[in-house]
Design a protein that fits this description.
Chains A, B: In the C-terminal section; belongs to the class-I pyridoxal-phosphate-dependent aminotransferase family. Chains A, B: It comes from Enterovirga aerilata. The structure is a homodimer. Helices cover about 40% and strands about 15% of the residues of chain A. Chain A is an alpha/beta fold. Chain A folds into three domains: about 60 residues, Arc Repressor Mutant, subunit A (Orthogonal Bundle); about 120 residues, Aspartate Aminotransferase, domain 1 (Alpha-Beta Complex), CATH 3.90.1150.10; about 240 residues, 3-Layer(aba) Sandwich (Aspartate Aminotransferase, domain 2). In chain A, the strands form three sheets. An eight-stranded mixed β-sheet of chain A has the order 3-10-9-8-7-4-5-6, sandwiched between helices. In chain A, a hairpin with a 3-residue loop joins strand 1 and strand 2. About 0% of the residues of chain A have low confidence. The interface between A and B is large, with 108 and 108 residues.
Chain lengths: ~450, ~450
């Protein structure tokens, strides 16, 4: 393949020209004819050459140039709720992503996923080839239902809908329940993508100030009375970006206020498996009457094997199934669900989580110590997870610092992208796992020096 | 695990009770302690038992019942554009799906996918664990760009966005270009899910009568003048449900009319690889100026490994990337893209397609012959693909027949679900690959006898 590509690049072979016969090329290269057949087949598969049965192989008439430049993330983008995602997803491997929302790949249970991939190679044809049913893999839904039951949330597997991501789960719920112009409550600060997603739905975002034990209950009630929102989206456990945990009292008050105003709540439980011990859940208290639980496996298992879920009332699930068929055809990838199921039911997964929680706990302490020396102070010390929501030194603007950091090949997550009221310009969210990179503090310190103050 | 489950089912162990110690249970069962550790870990992973470090394993307080009934597809649903999808996706393995839109799993390139899965087990941690970039796998986009170039459509890999399905690709385009109340042109008949998807977007659907060489060009122009639609969605090659192919003259006239009325066209190329030889493509003629090409690998590679794509103008791709991040976070599963890339670049894939086309050609002739004997006649004989769009005997209503067929455990695809004007009540779409099942004709004949005439 390299030899033929070289001839194309050096114009020794032009568009439409015939390639050497398999026999002749095998003799020239000193390889077996079957090796040449395979190379020609692969070049044909990628469209570089074409086969004309009975005649031989020819260079495609429009053989494309071989060096194709790929775009880099643009640096001139506005620092808005999409900024962190785009910058960190599209960053090169030389970029340090202290602001990103995932663990370094080496921290994930890759050995279990490799075992799952080897198991997949032996799966039934049906698993490898077919769409699967509309709710997604029944074994995975049964496993999730058993886990939820162990947490006090009883539901039938038919009340679970698998999706291709946690975000897609929320998107489907928004499609079902929201109309343009509706109001939606979020925490201030909240996960930036809630805002990006809600903008797509053309709804009005109302922020409720967030405290170390959840949304401020009095302001929450006031917001319900004043704005009559249709939906509230939140993380109860290990809140993004603060790492805070909902207290039982706040949970109770939120649910009562929701009942009084007929509010539906989406509880995004994506960080649940990173908790050292269980904390209150709105879905469990409410029993899925007005709370919808969503989650995914991107933070603890793999963000590459994409799979999320919705747990909700049966009538809502039925409607969400139709919406997912209409907009994605069918449920999530059965192959992805099989990989997730195999990994979750692998005996090693629980041990992986135990070790991960210990590792994160150590990384959190170390990151806090290092940041403290730069005058950056955590708003609270979370019980688990990988975020530290920190206050910057007086006068330092987070968006300015994030722009300066890009020049140092450092992606940060400035506070205002999380804040609907844009009142978090003095805050920054750090990923303590990514902070364990030895370059982190030096680069961050340089970026601080480079930022306009 | 079976032993413990048996104790739970027989109430020999109740919620909160302690399990036998690992050592004791190993002795009782005559297995090694490590076997018991693995069984307990797996039971803990699924939530049936919990581990209390230093104390042992306990039955979860809310151990769920072990036999959990799963819902069947409901039979009382309206025969609407979602009907075929729901009935065929959720059908049991004993149901014959003559109306479904995919090949039997045994017809797919499963050996190549198994090789790809074994390759995945050796992939980099980054491929297994990370989100990947926002446009999706660069190697796969490069391969697609080379294939498209070979078909006369030059584009940069950055003009390609991978999605989690072809349907999701169209959904993102609708989100970008449509507003509620807009008009959208489709073929009459067209793929039923175009209608289901467009209903989600709350647009008005305008059907253009379809001929054996594409949409009727005069009526197409008239519809543009009368309704000023924003978008036209079509399959040019091996049109769903008719199997027809766009002629060069029609393609040219459609594009001219589109230019005159500033219409954007979505060309869904999902059946392209099933064509015996290339046919005209709007995207290639137009050069991606007002045509957007979408596709997926569900029909020829795997519907379980979900991956689709959009090829479009750079500015549209840039906007679609943001929309996909906001609504799904990131691109499609990098694991899925890796499996697709490995399979497409496997030298065996081209041979698989050649063999598949021959097999389909034979199945098509045989199915047409069998149907003919029941008085069911193809509207045209397609050049490729797996659909036969057939006219039923006089007086037989397709929806009635489809309902009667459900009682025979047969899922059919009645004409009106494809027809925006609901003028195809005398037509039925058959899947010739599924028709090769020996039970097909006997069951269909029984259903015809059972249908009210």
């Amino acid at each position: 393949m390299d030899e033929i590509r070289g001839k194309l690049a050096g114009r020794a072979l032009g568009p439409g020209e015939k390639l050497p016969s398999i026999r002749r090329f095998a003799a020239v290269m000193g390889v077996s004819p079957s090796t040449v057949v395979e190379a020609y087949d692969r070049l044909a598969a990628e469209g570089t050459i074409v086969s004309r049965p009975g005649s031989g192989f020819y260079v495609s008439r429009s053989a494309p140039s071989l060096a194709i430049a790929e775009v880099e993330p643009r640096r001139d983008m506005a620092v808005d709720p999409l900024w962190v995602s785009r910058q960190s997803l599209d960053a090169g491997t030389d970029v340090l992503k202290l602001g990103c929302g995932w663990l370094p790949s080496g921290w994930m249970p890759n050995a279990a996923i490799r075992r799952a991939a080897r198991g997949l190679a032996k799966a039934d044809d049906v698993v490898l080839a077919d769409y699967g049913n509309t709710r997604g893999s029944l074994p995975l839904r049964r496993l999730l239902a058993r886990q939820f039951a162990a947490e006090g949330l009883d539901l039938r597997p038919s009340q679970l809908l698998l999706t291709s991501s946690g975000t897609q789960a929320i998107d489907l719920i928004c499609r079902l329940l929201l109309r343009p112009g509706d109001r939606v409550l979020v925490d201030d600060p909240c996960y930036f993508n809630f805002q990006a997603l809600l903008r797509v739905h053309q709804v009005r975002i109302v922020g409720v100030p967030f405290t170390p034990t959840g949304p401020d209950p009095s302001l929450f009630s006031e917001a319900l009375a004043a704005h009559r929102p249709r939906l509230y989206i939140t993380n109860s456990a290990l809140h993004n970006p603060t790492g805070a945990t909902l207290s039982p009292q706040t949970a109770h008050r939120i649910l009562n206020a929701a009942a009084a105003h007929d509010l539906t709540i989406v509880e995004d439980d994506i960080f649940a498996d990173l908790e050292p011990e269980p904390s209150p859940r709105l879905a469990a208290l409410d029993g899925l009457s007005r709370v919808i639980r969503i989650g995914s496996f991107s933070k603890t298992l793999s963000a590459s094997v994409r799979c999320g879920y919705v747990a909700a009332r049966s009538d809502w699930i039925e409607a969400l199934v139709d919406l997912q068929v209409a907009t994605s055809f069918g449920g999530p990838s059965p192959v992805a669900a099989e990989l997730v199921y195999a990994t979750l039911s692998d005996g090693s997964y629980r041990k992986h989580l135990d070790a991960l929680r210990r590792r994160l706990s150590k990384a959190r302490r170390e990151a806090a110590g290092k940041l403290e020396r730069l005058g950056i102070r955590p708003w609270l010390m979370p019980r688990g997870g990988f975020y530290l929501w920190c206050e910057l030194p007086e006068g330092l603007d987070a968006a300015e610092l994030a722009r300066a950091a890009l020049r140092e090949k450092l992606v940060l997550a400035p506070g205002d992208v999380f804040s609907p009221s844009r009142s978090a310009g003095g805050f920054m969210r750090f990923n303590v796992a990514q902070m364990s990179d030895p370059r982190a503090i030096a680069l961050l310190s340089r970026a601080m020096d480079g930022a306009d103050r």
